[in-house]
Amino acid sequence: MSKGGHRVLLIGLDGLMPEMVLKFSKEGILPNMGRLIDQGCFSISYPDPPVDTPTNWTCLATGARMGSHGVHGFGTHLPGEPIGRIRRISHSLGPSPASMFQNTPNEVAINWLCQAEYLWEAATKAGKKCIVVDWPGGYPARMEGIQVVDGSGPYCSIQARFLPPHRFTTIEGEEAKGTLKIEFKEAEAWANLPPSGPPPLESTILVSGQYLRGGRERPATPGERAGMADVLIEEPPAEAVMDRWAPTALVGSADLSQVTYHLLLVGEDGKGYDRLLISRSRNASQKLAVLRVGEWSPWLREKMRVRAGYRRLNAYDLPVTHADVDIEFMFKFRLLALSPDGRQVVLYRTSLFNAQRWTSPEGLAEELIDGLFQESQRQGLEGLLGDEVVLEHHPGILGAFWHPGVSNVCLGTPLTVKMLAQRGDWDALFVQIHAPDGINHRLLTYIDPQSSMYRPELAEKVWDEFRAEYSALDGAVGAMMEAGGDEDTVIGLVSDHAAFPVRRQFWPVPALAEAGLVALEENPATGLLRLNPKKCKIFSLGGGFMIHDQARFKEGIVEPKEMEEVAQKAIAALYLLRDPLTGQCPISAALTLNDASLLGQWGGRCPDVLFFLAPGYGLFGPRGEFPKEALAGPIFRDLPEETGLKGQHGGNLPQAVMKEEGFSARAVFIFKGLGVKRGYMRRQACWTVDVVPTLAHLAGLPFPRHCEGRVLTDALEGWPDLGEGSV
């Protein structure tokens, strides 16, 4: 550690709900989070709108409001660009995986959009040593001297562990299940054969991207979940799509690339076969490894062509794009069994690891992959840690996707933190796990007593799923605190938002069309209606509307003097909406950008009109064309059972709550350190931008250049407690 100050460890859990943290802590299933609360301060935190991942992980790392850092949700419109061009951010908020190997100009890294300085950048400039693990906006590093890992690391991250391990064996029967069959025969046409008592035997194996991990688990569908059916197994598809919202195994095809390795069994007189040679050709002098039982090869490297794909994160159907890319994989072999007669051979090959484009500096990836191997050896494993990971198939919010599973990420991320922390001195370590956001989106409605899908017997089982996920996350928090903390370390635990269950949905387009704000036209070929963008006065942009004005847009139709009138028309149209079932307006607030400055909204990247959904409401609407009759309604409906989005947060006010049910949009800030009161429960909420200045103050780090938050002085010893607030 550098001289002066204290180390700081900041742990982020995406979607961690303050209500559930307190509930489960009282139940005793969160011992590590509970200990952190007892030893320090607990505060509810308000996120900046839009209440989502990209916006608030940026607030949490810069201390800047959204209007200053400029990252507006999952889609940001840059001033000066056409109104239809939105710079989109993928799930883990680096470039989408396909753009690891090809240019996707509308898919950008979050820190490419960020206009503010990150805490790790300010600290590095001051001579501090910083580590960033899977923090949205961390990768790729914008300056040298920072160790950055994109993803959870080599244990189960798709970026690193592209393809699964394999066993090649001559054994048949039940023991051979899940292995690849090989056969040996007398060696022919080999050059430079080594001396051998028994006649040398040969075989070949393929190393290729054509094999995917075996079966994949997926959660039960809504219908199956009603009976809580067992987890299903489905065979992998012929092709899989990989992106950072929906990572899948990167797939290859046999006609793209495969490498043939030649195997040779040799031995000594009277002792039978005892060695296996691995070579790229039938020339023993070009051998890559000579293995006896239990021995490992060195790391081998092969460049292979595989097919990568991605799907942009968007509410609309977009085509899957594939790219055939060359990737240099690294892997090892281990000889697990070799009988003297050569009839029983078991050869293990590790996963194919990619060491490119997921760490800064680039060479750090190889160190972590080798670190995984070394840790596996220390634990006496036959293979590598993470070999048993099977990708889970999830229905997803915007389409199906593959994921290594939260329980595995909760093992892999702390292992990466441990390996990095043990490499040498460090001053600040930032790490994020993208959970429990997923379970909020998938299951929250099932535990809402006011939902049409609520059934007590099902709700209790879903609550148990939440308990299991929070328990796994608590274990990860404890492991990371152990790996990166001591009694002098400043430790913070934060989230970016929580979530609400969705009860009802509405479609605002008919009301906006009636107000003359969006233009519809009939497609003569189909007789269906569609939007006419050239005549629309407003366009949707992440929780609001951009006005299609002539001053900013070449094709704009709204004169500058009409902008305020258009804005007020949009606000009025939203406020006039009423749910016929409840009599409630589904909009909590609608306001102009000028009136939203108290919420951190300003600048050319924000919508001109912002609106916030009432808790329990979501949006729906036809995609593309729709029949004229749809305009007549109904424009409100109960949440359909088949939808993947059963919890949401991005469209709500930061302070929105369902107090009786125990849900909110609010985030968590728990922290401890020298000088912090113990067991202090703040009675007023802070903002996500207050995390950086508070931790920087405690650790003696410089504030980032654009930091706008405040130090929570009431949590410090010697300062008075705050009075009652809005919490």
Question: How would you characterize this protein structure?
Answer:
The protein is an alpha+beta fold and 727 residues long. The chain folds into 3 domains: 257 residues, Alkaline Phosphatase, subunit A, CATH 3.40.720; 218 residues, no CATH class; 135 residues, Gyrase A, domain 2. Strands 1, 2, 5, 6, 22, 25, 26, 40, 41 and 42 form a 10-stranded mixed β-sheet that branches. A 5-stranded antiparallel β-sheet has the order 10-11-14-15-16, with no helix packed on it. A 4-stranded antiparallel β-sheet has the order 7-21-18-17, with no helix packed on it. A hairpin with a 3-residue loop joins strand 14 and strand 15. About 11% of the residues have low confidence.
The count of helical stretches stands at 14
Radius of gyration: 28 Å
CATH architecture of the largest domain: 3-Layer(aba) Sandwich
According to DSSP, the number of beta strands is: 42
CATH superfamily of the largest domain: Alkaline Phosphatase, subunit A
Low-confidence stretches: 91-104, 210-255, 309-321, 396-401
Largest sheet, in brief, is: 10 strands, mixed
Whole-number tally of structural domains: 3
Strand content: 15-25%
Instruction: Categorize the overall geometry.
Output: globular
Q: Classify the fold: give the CATH topology of the largest domain.
A: Alkaline Phosphatase, subunit A
Distance between the termini: 38 Å
Q: Briefly, what CATH class of the largest domain?
A: Alpha Beta
Measured as a percent range, the helix fraction is 10-25%
**What is the residue-averaged pLDDT?**
87
